[in-house]
Amino acid sequence: MSNPALTFEKDASDALPLHVLGPEGLADWTEGAGPVARAWFEASSFKAGAGQTLVVPGADGRPEQAIVGLGPEDRRAQHRFSVAAARDALPAGAWRIATPLEPGARDEAALGWLLAGYRFDRYAAAPAPQATLVAPDGCDAARIEAIAAGEALTRDLINTPAWEMGPADLAAAATDLAAEFGADSRVIEGPALAEGFPLIQAVGQAAPEDRAPRLIDLNWGETGPRVTLVGKGVCFDTGGLNLKPGASMGLMKKDMGGAAAVLGLARMIMATGLNLRLRVLIPAVENAVSGSAFRPGDILTSRKGLTVEVNNTDAEGRLVLADALALASESETDMIVSMATLTGAARVAVGPDLAPFYTGEDRFAETLAAAGDKVRDPLWRMPFWAPYETMIEPGIADLDNAPKGGFAGSITAALFLRRFVARPETYTHFDIYGWNPNAAPARPKGGAGQGARALFDALSGLS
């Protein structure tokens, strides 16, 4: 997969300089600028605000250089990928960063530039030519390109309407990814799924035959730590018989955001050749409404043998993940990570920008948090709060998929999932949103990867 907008410019011969400055650097820049550039700057309203861009012409009136602002130093933590804002403001052509940057700021600028080149144009006219960037000196261009390609895959999968991204389509996308990197893949469906994965079957059985449920199983790598990624692949969620209101159903094409995130992460891992033994498991279903839909009050028996009382058919994500986590635990693994657009409670707690995660391993939590800061993929640790275990125990069955009361919804969902993992100390869970409600530099409105870049950075330290 090669998208020119997601790669660096290879020909630096005609690249124009792009200066990256905060307000404190403007005086030095103007002092060294020629008279035409200085006059242009003085006639402008440029203050080096975060993402503010000024194209500076030469004596012939053509663009000669440009400046992009970082904003005041004491407010930069409020902004990510400020340099990326220049991409849409600059005229098409090659550019190079002319300002020495610290490694972290340099890599952020390089990655942000590529992410800003993403366009979901499957149903629209081809985008206009964009400005391109020469890879800054010192950055690992191939690695950054691989990260951008993985994020683009995640965005594409989420942005595709459910009509063309059902369980079979999601399985095809995973199979294509496996083929691209020489991974093994299989898809379990039909009687084998019904027999071996009863919760996945129950959630998906109301859908028509061409959108029947399935389990995707991808394996890659022969050496290194064993890492299993499990992604929620609910390709559309009506809520089932506990039908969602229309306003809540509008974004449910993104309910496979966990699956999209783990596939994007898998692409990063395989493209960069991390020394890992990777497994990706995706329960792919559509939570539909028909006469065969599972019902509130049903008690289902999971692959692990635990029984689950269904008190809300709209809490289906944890059901399909439960069977996949049980399968993941049946093989030797050093780490299991689940990613899912699981609860509205997580959004109420931290909003759409932060990805809450749960882990019982303090050292890994610290590694993840540091990685999130480093790669500008913000995370927030949440607790596996053991006293809440009783909230997911209904008495009539082993577990309750939707505890009453409305408290701690993200925590109780995480505790529910942990019950299906054989070694809880190896388990990490992400409750992501998978969507940017508003456009921001390098983050267009629409599907979004969350947690994957931080995980990739953390896993790079293991390989």
TrEMBL record:
CDD domains: Peptidase_M17 (cd00433). One of its GO terms (biological process) is proteolysis. One of its GO terms (molecular function) is manganese ion binding. Its EC number is 3.4.11.23. Residues 312-319 form the Cytosol aminopeptidase domain. Keywords: Aminopeptidase, Hydrolase, Manganese, Protease. Pfam families: Peptidase_M17 (PF00883), Peptidase_M17_N_1 (PF21337). Belongs to the peptidase M17 family. This is Peptidase B. It comes from Palleronia marisminoris.
